[in-house]
Model the fold of this input.
Amino acid sequence: MTRPHPVKHQIERLRRELSTVEPAPRDALAGKSNAAAVLVPIFERAGELHVVYIRRSDHVESHRGQVAFPGGRVDPGDVTLLDAALREAREEVAIEPATVDVLGAFPTLSTMATNIIVAPFAGVIPGDSRLARDPNEVAEIFDVPMAALADPRYRGETEWQRDGRAAKSPAILYGGQTIWGLTLRITLRMLEILGA
Done:
C-alpha cells in the first residue's frame, strides 16, 4: 500500500477544511472603502509547500510597506469576492486566474489597526508561475516554506503605532520580512488546519 504524497495530503486537508467555509456575500463588501478580498497563493517546490506574500509599496493608501497577500477592493465587474481576489492577484503579481486551483475560503476577518474587512481565499498555483509585481502597488514578492512558517525559531514581535502609542504584536520574522497582523492570523489559521 503506497502512502499519500505529503504535499498532496496537505493540499487536500486545506481543501476539505476551507471548502466548508461560506464566504461573505459580495454585497457585504462591495463598494466599501474598508473592504477587500485577498488570495493566499500556495505552491510546491522540491516536495514542500510554499506561501507567496507581497510587501506593499510605499505608494498605496493603506498598510504601506507591510507584508500582505495579493488583493484589494471589490470592483463593479467582480461577480463574487473570489473574482475580486483572483483579479487583484493577476493585477498585482501576474497570477493568471485560470491557473489557480481554488481550495476555498477562510472566515472574513478585520484588521486591528484600520478595521479593513478582508475576505481571504486560498489557492494552489503552478510551481513554475512567473510572478511579476505591479510596482505601483507591490514593492516585493517573496515566498516562505510552510515548514519555516511553523518553526518557532522564526517567531517574534513587531512594534507599531496605535493611536499615537507604541504597541507590540506577535510576528513571524523570516528572510528580513515581518509577517504580522491580519496576514499572520490567516497564516496561523492555515498552519492550524495543517496541524503544524
User: Anything to note?
Assistant: Residues 6-147+177-193 form a domain with the Nucleoside Triphosphate Pyrophosphohydrolase fold (CATH 3.90.79.10).
